[in-house]
Amino acid sequence: MKRLFIATGLTIGLLAACGEAGEAPLAPEEPAFAASGSTLVECPISETRSTSATVDALGGTVSLDGHSITLPAGAVLLPTEITLTVPASNYMEIDIRANDLESFEFEAPVSVVLSYQRCTRANLDKDMLSVWHIDTATKALLEDMGGVDDKIARSVTFESGHLSGFAIAN
Predict the structure, then answer these.
(1) Cβ-proximal residues to 152 (8 Å cutoff; 6+ apart), any chain
(2) Sheet containing 155-163: which strands, arranged edge to edge?
(3) H or E segment at 6?
(4) Other Cβ atoms within 10 Å of 125 Cβ, number
(5) Which helix H or strand E contains 106, and what residues bound it?
(6) What is the pLDDT of residues 76-101, one digit of tens each?
(7) How far is 41 from 96, CA to CA, in rounded Å?
């Protein structure tokens, strides 16, 4: 009887760990849909570009190809290397890291600008765009960062207290 309980417990544990039958993991470069129905804006680029700069407690800005991050005074307490990367991707995304960490919390919110100047799709001028915190490997939409969509500058500006991967969605 004791063996039956142990076997049943192990079976239940394994089934719970595997998830529901029929679930398939997302393939890389296949964006997840958010509950809001948002999808990542497609605008392929084949070359990865990156830049880095050290920002101290006085603040500063790091920019690349119309994208930027601005740290106000006090956002970091020690000199911090900020790296902004525009990866080769099918989507309008950037990856921002501090001291090469995948995630980083600031002492004060920072301002981030994502440019969609390279996109020539006419529907972007009609759609209301926002920025999402994404999983850079699966492209899953994790958190709606909101933002102000400037149709003239063709960019979305938002504030964040953390760094990670971000992408424009409609």
Answers:
(1) none
(2) 60-64, 67-71, 104-115, 155-163, 148-150
(3) helix 2-18
(4) 10
(5) strand 104-115
(6) 999 999 999 999 999 999 999 999 98
(7) 18
Decide: 138 and 32 in contact? Cβ < 8 Å: yes
> Which residue from 87, 170, 100, 169 is spatially nearest to 136, judged by alpha carbons?
87
**DSSP of 40-89, one letter per residue?**
BPEEEE-S-EEEEEEEBTTBEEEEETTEEEEEPTTS-SS-EEEEEEE-SE
What are the pLDDT digits (tens) for 114-127?
999 999 877 788 88
Distances (CA, A) of 55 to 73, 74, 83, 92, 166: 10, 10, 10, 25, 20
Element spanning 13, H or E: helix 2-18
Q: Which amino acid is at 79?
A: P
Kindly report the pTM of this predicted structure: 0.77
Domain ranges (residues) in the chain: 26-169
Domain covering 26-169 assigned CATH 2.60.220 in the classification: yes
* Exposure of 83 in the CB half-sphere (CA atoms within 13 A): 16
**Facing residues of 130 across strands?**
169
